Amino acid sequence: METELSALAMSASKVEIRLTPADWSPAGTDAVEFLISPNVGEEPKPLEKIASGGEISRVALALKTCVAPAKTAAHEPLRTLVFDEVDAGVGGSAAEAVGRRLKKLSAMNQVLCVTHLAQIAGFADHHYFVEKHAERGRTITTIEELDSGARTREIGRMLSGERVTPEALRHAAQLIRASGQ
């Protein structure tokens, strides 16, 4: 877990799993507590009390990567894994590492990821553009699957902002190629 977290821009993290006896229940006879110290010199504390949304998503990604099966039997249903804010607080090579781990998980699972980072979006098998707008006093959300050209333009926009430059488009195409697509 700590090795995976290190690659996900949480290099100082220490993980501890604490088991204590508990009364019998359908969940068993142990209470399991997941403790983490994301910063040097801090004592591990319960994950749900100290971690941000992005940290919780990255811990989940690290855990799911560690326990991902090498392959799934044909009769086993796919799991759907949803990651939102997994890119919070990361960029550059850490974002690429997050993208690679999501891609690895997608080999045996359906992975849905909401991201604003081109380095992560470049690894997607399918890319959707989600947009909110007001219509007759209501907020409407639209979702559009992007074809290859639109995907390159959207990743270019993620890289450069509203004004998509030829350099951003070339960089977007390179990110997609580098992801193995």
Outline the structure in words.
The protein is α+β, with helices and mostly antiparallel strands and 181 residues long. Helices cover 39% and strands 29% of the residues. It is built from 7 helices and 7 strands; from the N terminus they run αβββααβαβαββαα. The strands form 3 sheets. A 3-stranded antiparallel beta sheet has the order 1-2-3. A two-stranded parallel sheet has the order 4-5. The chain has a two-stranded antiparallel sheet with strand order 6-7. α4 (92-106) links the parallel β4 and β5 (109-114). α3 packs across α4 and α6 packs across α7. It is globular.
Q: Could you name the key traits of this structure?
A:
two-stranded parallel sheet; 181 residues; alpha+beta; 7 helices
> How many angstroms separate the termini?
28 Å
Give the tally of β-strands: 7
Helix content: 25-40%
Major sheet characteristics:
3 strands, antiparallel
Q: Helix count?
A: 7
Q: What form results from the Cα inertia axes? A: globular
**Overall mean pLDDT score?**
88
Bin the strand percentage: 25-35%
Overall structural class, as computed from helix and strand content, comes to alpha+beta
What series of H and E elements makes up the topology?
HEEEHHEHEHEEHH
**What integer value in Å does the Rg equal?**
19 Å
Low-confidence stretches: none
| Main sheet strand line-up | 1-2-3
